[in-house]
C-alpha cells in the first residue's frame, strides 16, 4: 500500500490542480459564513475521469458480482488507517475544503460555505455528521465506524439536528437553511446536488463493516424507522440517487484526499458507481 500511494501522489496533485482550477464556483469572501456555494452543472460531468484509483487497487474484483464482489471489496477497503474522533475535525477541514475559499468548508446538507474555525456545537457552527447515523448499530464515536471519514461530513448544527438519526427517503417539508433538503417524521431527503454522495457513503459503510472487527454488520434495507438496528433505508431510493447524481469533482477529490492523507482506503462506489447495481 505505501508504494502504491507514493506512485499515485504526483498524479493526484496534478489532477487536483487541473480539476479544481476549472471549477466554476463563485468566489466567496473569506469567512462568509452564510454564502452558498452552488455546484455548477459542468463540475458534475467534466473531469469525472480525472480522479481514479491507483493501478492495482481493485485487483481481484474482476468478473465478480453480488456477494462475491462485496466480499472482495470488503477485503480491499478494510485495509485502512483509523482516526480518533478528535482527529476528525482537522481531517474534515481538508477533505471538505471549499475549492473557492481555502479558509472554509462546504456543509453537506445545506451547501453553505462556512469558516473552518466555526466548528463546534453552537448555533451557527458546523459539526461532524454521521451520514450512517451512529445509532443505527450503536457504534457511537469510538474508533471504527464512528470515526470513518468516508461517511463523516461537516454539517450545520441545526440542520444536523433536524436530520437526527432518520433514514433516507424522498419527500417531506423544507428544512430551514437546508439548501433544499426535505424531512418528515421518519426520513430525510438531502438537497439534489449531494443525493448521490449520501447514497455512496451508505454503500461504502455497508461494504466496509460486515460484522468483523467487533463492529455490527451494517446493511441498507427498504425500511424507515430502523431505530438501533444496524440497518438504514431506503435501499431503492439510495440506488436511484446514485444513478441521478453521479460523482463530481468535489466528491472525487475527497476520496483521493482520504486515500492519500488519512485512512489510505477508498470509497469504491465513488470510483465505480456501477458497482452499486452489481451488488444490490
Automatic annotation (TrEMBL):
Keyword set includes Nuclease: yes
Domain of life: Bacteria
Keywords linked to the UniProt accession: Endonuclease, Hydrolase, Nuclease, Signal
Region (Disordered): 168-188
Any GO molecular function: hydrolase activity
Signal sequence coordinates: 1-29
Keyword Hydrolase attributed: yes
Protein name: Endonuclease
Native source species: Streptomyces sp. R17
Amino acid at each position: 500500500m505505501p508504494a502504491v500511494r507514493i506512485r499515485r501522489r504526483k498524479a493526484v496533485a496534478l489532477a487536483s490542480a487541473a480539476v479544481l482550477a476549472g471549477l466554476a464556483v463563485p468566489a466567496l469572501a473569506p469567512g462568509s459564513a452564510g454564502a452558498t456555494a452552488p455546484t455548477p452543472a459542468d463540475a458534475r460531468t467534466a473531469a469525472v475521469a480525472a480522479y481514479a484509483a491507483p493501478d492495482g487497487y481493485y485487483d481481484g474484483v474482476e468478473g465478480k458480482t453480488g456477494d462475491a464482489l462485496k466480499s472482495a471489496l470488503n477485503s480491499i477497503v478494510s485495509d485502512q488507517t483509523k482516526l480518533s474522533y478528535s482527529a476528525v475535525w482537522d481531517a474534515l477541514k481538508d477533505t471538505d475544503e471549499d475549492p473557492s475559499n481555502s479558509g472554509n468548508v462546504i456543509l453537506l446538507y445545506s451547501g453553505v460555505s462556512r469558516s473552518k474555525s466555526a466548528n463546534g456545537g453552537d448555533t451557527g457552527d458546523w459539526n461532524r455528521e454521521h451520514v450512517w447515523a451512529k445509532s443505527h448499530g450503536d457504534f457511537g464515536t469510538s474508533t471504527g465506524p464512528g470515526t470513518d471519514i468516508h461517511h463523516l461530513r461537516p454539517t450545520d448544527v441545526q440542520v444536523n439536528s433536524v436530520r437526527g438519526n432518520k433514514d433516507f427517503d424522498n419527500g417531506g417539508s423544507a428544512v430551514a437553511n437546508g439548501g433544499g433538503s426535505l424531512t418528515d417524521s421518519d426520513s430525510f431527503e438531502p438537497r439534489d446536488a449531494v443525493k448521490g454522495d449520501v447514497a455512496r457513503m451508505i454503500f461504502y459503510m455497508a461494504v466496509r463493516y460486515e460484522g468483523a472487527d467487533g463492529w455490527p454488520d451494517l446493511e441498507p434495507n427498504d425500511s424507515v424507522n430502523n431505530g438501533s438496528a444496524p440497518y438504514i433505508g431506503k435501499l431503492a431510493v439510495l440506488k436511484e440517487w446514485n444513478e441521478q447524481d453521479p460523482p463530481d469533482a468535489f466528491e472525487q477529490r475527497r476520496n483521493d484526499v482520504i486515500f492519500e492523507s488519512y485512512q489510505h482506503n477508498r470509497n469504491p462506489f465513488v470510483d465505480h458507481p456501477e458497482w452499486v447495481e452489481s451488488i444490490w
